[in-house]
Amino acid sequence: MRTPLIVGNWKMYKTVDEAVHYVKDLCNLVKNINDVNVVIAPTFIALHATAKAVRNNKVKIAAQDLYWKAEGAFTGEISGALIHACGTQYVIIGHSERRAMFAETDTHVRKKVTAALTHSLTPIVCIGETLDQRESGKTFDILDHQIATNLADIKTEQLAQLVIAYEPVWAIGTGKNATPMQAAEAHSHIRSHLASTFGKEAAVQCHIIYGGSVKPKNIQELIAQPDVDGALVGGASLEVQAFFEIISRSRKATV
Ligand code: PEP
């Protein structure tokens, strides 16, 4: 059974003090929730302080990106080794904002996935179609292409160590979430693709989470879909009470 995973992506919001204050509140709120895993992705500068603040708690920390080299003369970049050394366990890779605004390609994503695993970080690999691609009936082709290229270097035994985030680009930050049916269809397609590449046994172990305007009011219907194993939450993770509501409503057994 895949324990639901809820990840808050804070993008470029919150000072270090605000971040630490929030994660301490969150640890307190979720201390009795044992059937949902919770991750927060603050900015790079807050990774160390938040990881320290959540130590020995159930909340884990993610970076929002990494560079694939372990170290070197790469001004402005942060490696998986550095991220891991400050107590971080997850890393978001290939978010659509990075692909669209920072020219991140499928090849970059592939290298970053390998680097994350090398440094004992769980990659949260974001894939998803644009509105144009959906409207022209290309959603599954796009997903197939992204899985094939982004996971090209992954071995079967590594699949259980990574998370795929299905994030339709048209649903991110727009207030327009995919319907539970659209999410179910895409997630089931992704799992079938994984099964055909890595085998069914490996595919059932991989978490596939949904992202795109997840809110307390729509999480229950989304998480109720059999292949939806959690959520990547942007805007609604910025306020601790709203994020806690999402976490509480993600318990599969209570849906
Ligand atoms: C995201 O940043 O990955 C995201 C899904 O954002 P939002 O929840 O605001 O749509």
Describe the structure.
There is one protein chain. The chain is 40% helix and 15% strand. It is α/β, with parallel strands linked by helices and 255 residues long. It has an eight-stranded parallel beta barrel, surrounded by six helices. Helix 10 (219-223) links the parallel strand 7 and strand 8. The longest helix has 19 residues, at 180-198. The two termini are 16 Å apart. 44% of the residues are buried. The model has no long low-confidence stretch (mean pLDDT 96). Bound molecules: phosphoenolpyruvate.
Kindly summarize this structure in a few lines:
The protein has 255 residues and is an alpha/beta fold. 40% of the residues lie in helices and 15% in strands.
Radius of gyration: 17 Å
Class per helix and strand makeup: alpha/beta
Share of helical residues: 25-40%
Query: How many distinct beta strands?
Result: 8
Separation of termini?
A: 16 Å
Question: Count of helices?
Answer: 11
Rounded average pLDDT:
96
Strand count, sense and closure of the main sheet?
Answer: 8 strands, parallel, barrel
